[in-house]
């Protein structure tokens, strides 16, 4: 029986990567015997392997929205798992449009996939994967309680926070979102709230590195949650642990863990983890 745990595989907000820096968003949640991947940013396959996961044992994949830093490695992850020996079904849950993403990947790799089926005797990759497009509300997932909440991430319409629960252990992912007070009710009583976080004073330096000037800055500020507002959500939800991920910025040497905590701790007095790639959080055993 697998032990319940959460692994933050990629903790950087945005698709750009830089030497020695963190990778874009992806998480592993092992809950109730299921191996669940939440978002598939660049580097997710390597992150899973480094977390001790056998790729041929993938179970469930959830995509919160279709920004590239959350979905870019969906197809490559499944294909890599297939070449590693995947022969059991994988279910991909995602917002409207995720089916087109998968179909486009299959088309782009049609030559390789067909060749490996014929030459290496592999199972038909398309038949191994079931795509489920979801909307807000409860999701039908075997042996788990899963729910989705639409959150504001302009201009994206279909972006969803996700809540998972099994045997009294509840983990909520904010997805990418502007400050959204209803998220506190959705996450209420969670053992872990995994919430994106932004420090506004670091945004100008991101823009200077990336380009696009004022338009990029306006998008970042409108679509993400300041760390102090994340603390408001965590406090209102009375979560047991707050884990910050999708950090904006995540790779600025002038912004340290102390800077993040300085924004959080005056508002939320519970335990806080500033996410780093590979951070593991294990379910605490119930007290007798």
Note down, in words, how this protein is organized.
This protein is α/β, with parallel strands linked by helices and 288 residues long. The protein has one domain (5-276): Metallo-beta-lactamase, Chain A, CATH 3.60.15. The chain is 31% helix and 27% strand. It is built from eleven helices and 14 strands. The chain has helices spanning 44-50, 68-71, 74-83, 98-108, 110-120, 125-128, 182-186, 203-210, 213-223, 227-237, 257-264; strands spanning 5-10, 26-31, 34-40, 60-62, 90-94, 129-133, 137-141, 144-150, 160-166, 169-173, 192-198, 242-248, 272-274, 279-282. The strands form two sheets. A seven-stranded mixed β-sheet has the order 6-5-4-3-2-1-14. Helix 8 (203-210) crosses helix 9 (213-223). The longest helix is centred in the middle third of the chain and has 11 residues, at 98-108. The chain is globular, with a radius of gyration of 19 Å. The two termini are 21 Å apart.
Name of the level-1 CATH class: Alpha Beta
What quaternary form is this? single chain
CATH H-tier superfamily: Ribonuclease Z/Hydroxyacylglutathione hydrolase-like
SSE string? EEEHEHHEHHHEEEEEHEHHHEHEE
Biggest sheet character: 7 strands, mixed
Percentage of residues in helical conformation: 25-40%
Instruction: Look up the CATH topology.
Output: Metallo-beta-lactamase, Chain A
Name the beta content range.
25-35%
Q: Give the CA-CA distance, first to last residue.
A: 21 Å
Number of continuous helical runs: 11
Shape: globular
Give Rg in angstroms: 19 Å
Overall pLDDT? 94
Question: Which structural class should the secondary elements be placed in?
Answer: alpha/beta
From the 3D coordinates, which CATH architecture would you assign? 4-Layer Sandwich
Sequence stretches where pLDDT stays below 50 over 5 or more residues: none
Order of strands across the widest beta sheet? 6-5-4-3-2-1-14
Number of domains: 1
């Amino acid at each position: 029986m697998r032990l319940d745990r959460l692994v933050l595989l990629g903790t950087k907000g945005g698709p750009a990567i830089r030497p020695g820096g963190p990778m874009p968003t992806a998480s592993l949640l092992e809950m109730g015997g299921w191996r669940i991947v939440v978002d598939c940013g660049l580097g997710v396959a390597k992150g899973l392997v480094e977390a001790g996961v056998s790729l041929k044992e993938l179970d469930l994949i959830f995509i919160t929205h279709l920004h590239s830093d959350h979905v870019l490695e969906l197809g490559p992850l499944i294909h890599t798992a297939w070449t590693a020996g995947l022969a059991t079904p994988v279910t991909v849950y995602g917002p409207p449009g995720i089916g087109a993403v998968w179909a486009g990947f299959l088309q782009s790799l049609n030559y390789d996939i067909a060749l490996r089926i014929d030459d290496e005797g592999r199972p038909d990759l398309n038949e191994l994967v079931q795509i489920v497009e979801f909307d807000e509300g409860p999701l039908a997932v075997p042996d788990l309680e899963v729910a989705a909440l639409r959150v504001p991430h302009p201009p994206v319409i279909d972006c969803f926070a996700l809540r998972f629960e099994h045997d009294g252990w509840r983990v909520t992912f904010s997805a990418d979102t502007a400050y959204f007070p209803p998220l506190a009710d959705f996450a209420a009583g969670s053992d872990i709230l995994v919430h994106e976080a932004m420090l506004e004073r670091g945004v100008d330096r991101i823009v200077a590195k990336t380009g696009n000037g004022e338009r990029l800055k306006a998008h970042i500020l409108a679509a993400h949650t300041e760390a102090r507002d994340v603390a408001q959500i965590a406090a209102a939800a009375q979560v047991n642990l707050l884990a910050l991920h999708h950090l904006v910025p995540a790779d600025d040497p002038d912004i340290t863990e102390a800077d993040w905590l300085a924004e959080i701790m005056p508002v939320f007095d519970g335990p806080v983890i500033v996410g780093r790639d590979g951070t593991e959080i294990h379910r605490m055993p119930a007290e007798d």
